[in-house]
Amino acid sequence: PAGPAATMRLASMLAALRPILPLVLGLSLGCSLSLLRASWSQGGGEEQCPGAAGPPGARTGGARPEAADGWPGRGHEDFRPRIVPYYRDPNKPYKKVLRTRYIQTELGFHERLFVAVLTSKATLNTLAVAVNKTVAHHFPRLLYFTGLRSAKVPHGMVLVAHGDERPIWLMYETMHYIHQHFGSDYDWFYIMQDDTYAQAEQIKALVTHLSINQDVYLGRAEEFIGGDEQARYCHGGFGYLISRSLLLKLHPHLDSCRNEILSVRPDEWLGRCIIDFLGITCVSQLQGQHYHTYELAKNTEPEKEEEEEFQAALAVHPVSDMTLMYRLHKHFSRIQLDRTYQEIQDLQMQIRNLTSLTPAGEGGLTWPVGINAPFLPKSRFEVISWDYFTEQHLFSCPDGSPKCELSGASKADVSEIIESALEQLNSRYQPLLRFSKRQLLNGYRRFDPTRGMEYTLDLLLEAVTQKGHSHVLAKRVSLVRPLSKVEIIPMPYVTEATRVQLVLPLTVQDLDFVANFLDMFAMNTLDTHDNALLTLLFIYHPYDAQRVSQVDVFAGVKAMVGELEKRYAEVKIPWISVKTEVPSQVKLMDIVSKKHPVDTLFFLASVWTEINMEFLNRCRMNTISNWQVFFPVHFQEFNPALVYRGEQAASSSTDFLRDGHFDRHSFAEACFYNSDYMTARTKLAADILDRDELLESMEVFDVFLHYSGLHLFRAVEPGLVQKYALRSCNPRLSEELYHRCVLSNLEGLASRSHLAMALFEQEQANST
């Protein structure tokens, strides 16, 4: 019958259309909604909906509103993006726009907290030192203010002396100094005395929860003696917090307060000044944040104090001596540490409870709980190797040797890890068992960039039971030293306006490359008017020096320098002639150092260096006087004959992995200040005495590494590119320097793949 056949055909058709049915329904629904929306936007016209309330003259249809208070229209066109065309008056000379180095400065951001400590000549070397050792490293900026200073200022303390010990005068001068030097840089100002112990981390956390838009005068509120019952001042012994807005409003009235307000206490004088001229009183609670304090009684034992008020205190006063300050710091540090451990345990418990609800289940729980999972390599080249060690030796040495003595930071690291392993074992199994170490059988460690340093220890332990029975057993433990919170290290501020003095040593073997160096120097520094100068150092062999009156091997270079000085009338390129068989880098730098001021920023270059403005700016920024020296790792291009093998090289080669490598064996380029070099060189001279032959085995890098306490910044520098050239290695230098030069030449030939291809082609050519 036709009925069943039609039903079967319909069912087969629906089965065929079922995969595309959601697509058809989605398109139909989308088209319907689009048409419905278009009818709504076009059907409003000029009429308002009945009962609709709106501003006079506002249009409620689909057309754009043109004018209304509170509505976007012509009166609010500032909120619409506009393209401002660039126009420069041709009649005015072009002036380079100078912008700040950091976006924080340009946007007007402020630092968070400034701390001022009021001290005196009598307590500067006692209580003030105790404050500096306990809390100074927690605050971003801390200064000490005193009336008269002692003959010797304690190390590591920035002291401001006002010249008068009167308390009111000290407070007045301190507030004036803070406003003048830091009023535009910080949002909050915390003022405390040297007999106050403050919990630095708690103070920092407090200011993060307060709004900077209000005038804040926060501390321990005290009543004035015989004054208004509602007015309060902040007790100076417990410290107090002042906002930047309050400081700016208070500064114009400081002189009037000094002349009109009489008081014995400086904190009461400041509180009266703020109340009389600004009408702001001290509060102990603001925006839901409490400023908890605790007053110490005589002969108080901090370790025995169990009051909740003491445990929650942000500031404790009075602290009578240094020992009490250190005991308070130890006690509150232990409290904070216990709270941190408890928070970690709570978070780990929450992670365990939530892991069972995840798709991976409990199998997705990592160890330790809350730490990132170990790095999973995607290929054999990404596998992180383990370093083997014992208690005496390390079998993966920095210099490449197979075995070296475990010392310094590595030895301290291993000792701490073993102690931590024993502590964890005893805490888990006591009182049933007590473990003591017999020997470290095997030790392995590796650095995982996703989580930290991982350790695996095979320990030979002696386990003692409660009854005194002992047993020796071997146990394997795994530990992780996780990466902590990333911190920004404060560095001295440097600018790009510093003049760079380039120093270029030249030998006879370098003559073929001098022309290219001078051309790049002229194009990238002289043409751009960069603040950089050049000094040439001509190194004559004794034989060439004897014939310099007849044949000067550097005559061509001197002629090129003369041409540059004619082309750039304001530029002078001096040169220094030196006669030596062994061109020691340190001896050459000694000669140059004596001919320049101590504040000179040197860039020790090589003849293959291509100078550019980008690198010079990095040289300025990465070199900090009395703090840091910069040794860039230049990019060395490979031999084009091996890399391209007759093919045409790309005009703008950016494939570093194919065209070159960073030459870590070369220390020829360096940026440092003359004062830092002279300081390190003085220490070196005292160490070697009259054995000048030792200088032939050293480079400038070795001088800074062994004889200065500066930071040595060694980093790859993509802006410092050198063309391929076979360097001449002087065999008269030390064995290490000669070996390093040979390695640099060999690794600079080509990559392994290029060398393998060259050998393969050579074998094929020989076989045919």
Describe this protein's structure.
Its main location: Golgi. It is found in: Golgi apparatus, Golgi stack membrane. The protein is of the alpha/beta class and 768 residues long. It has 23 helices and 27 strands. The protein is 36% helix and 20% strand. The strands form 8 sheets. The protein has a 6-stranded mixed sheet with strand order 3-2-1-4-9-6. Residues 40-77 and 651-657 have low confidence and may be disordered.
Which terms summarize this structure?
768 residues, alpha/beta, Spore Coat Polysaccharide Biosynthesis Protein SpsA, Chain A, Nuclear Transport Factor 2, Chain: A, 3 domains, six-stranded mixed beta sheet, five-stranded mixed beta sheet, 23 helices, 20% strand, globular, transferase, membrane, signal-anchor, glycoprotein
